[in-house]
Design a protein that fits this description.
Elements lengths: L3 E8 L2 E8 L2 H24 L6 H23 L2 H21 L1
Antiparallel strand pairs: 1-2
Helix pairs in contact: 1-2
Length: 100
């Protein structure tokens, strides 16, 4: 049994089929993502005095979303925290061993 179905999304005035898992949450997220793209494109369209074509607007939206993703990944990087904790743990062990 196929656990996906097709929904139709409109992005930049064009219809696109999208394979979606059979959950309301996945369908909702896909529709919200398309809505977010269209909303941001309209914001850019209004912000610029020159006429920009859909490709330029989509490129700007793609860059904005990619930049937000890069920032989110950077925020989720916990490696520096673990390194600091490891160093603190080593210092505590040294101190405790010196007390023996």
């Amino acid at each position: 049994m196929n656990d996906e179905f097709i929904i139709h999304l409109e992005i930049a005035g064009k219809p696109y089929p999208f394979y979606c898992k059979r959950t309301r949450e996945d369908e909702f997220n896909a529709r919200e993502a398309a809505k977010q793209i269209n909303t941001q494109m309209n914001s850019y369209r209004k912000a610029y005095t020159v006429e920009l074509d859909s490709k330029d607007l989509l490129a700007m939206v793609a860059f904005q979303l990619s930049l937000a993703d890069v920032k989110k990944v950077e925020e989720q990087n916990v490696s520096p925290v673990f390194e600091k904790l490891h160093k603190l743990n080593q210092e505590i062990e040294k101190y405790l061993n010196a007390q023996d």
